[in-house]
Amino acid sequence: MLKTINNCIYHTRGDTGTVAFAPTVDGVLIEKYTATFTAKKTFDDEVPVLQKTVNSGMVTFEHDDTNTLAYGTYVYDIEVQYTDEYGKAQVKTFGPYNYYVRPDVTR
């Protein structure tokens, strides 16, 4: 299972799937950007437990991304880099939100 409710992600450990992402600024969709999804156990952790590149508006999770991850509550955000209408480089972070890695029975 992989679903998003109010920007929180619920993900059964080891499951594959995608989460759609459509960044906006002041209600306007950003069309050309690079973005990174980053999840950590706590805000203060130096090293993320999971980091993914957003491709074509999707964060794609593979089996190995979470298969050995301890189930529990994590935090995530998505950092977007883009160029505004004036040609200036911009960075916008969406989040933080909760990322729930749910346990799986069949291993």
Topology:
Layout: E1 2-5, E2 8-12, E3 17-20, E4 24-25, E5 28-29, E6 33-40, E7 50-54, E8 58-61, H1 63-66, E9 72-83, E10 89-102
Parallel strand pairs: 2-10
Antiparallel strand pairs: 1-2, 3-8, 4-5, 6-7, 6-9, 9-10
Summarize the structure.
The chain has one helix spanning 63-66, and strands at 2-5, 8-12, 17-20, 24-25, 28-29, 33-40, 50-54, 58-61, 72-83, 89-102. With 107 residues, the chain is mainly β.
Protein traits:
elongated, 10 strands, 107 residues, single chain, six-stranded mixed sheet, two-stranded antiparallel sheet, mainly beta
Structure description:
- By secondary structure, the chain is mostly beta strands.
- Helices cover 4% and strands 56% of the residues.
- It has one helix spanning 63-66; strands spanning 2-5, 8-12, 17-20, 24-25, 28-29, 33-40, 50-54, 58-61, 72-83, 89-102.
- The strands form three sheets. A six-stranded mixed beta sheet has the order 1-2-10-9-6-7, with no helix packed on it. Strands 3-8 form a two-stranded antiparallel sheet. The chain has a two-stranded antiparallel sheet with strand order 4-5.
- The model has no long low-confidence stretch (mean pLDDT 96).
- The longest helix is centred in the middle third of the chain and has 4 residues, at 63-66.
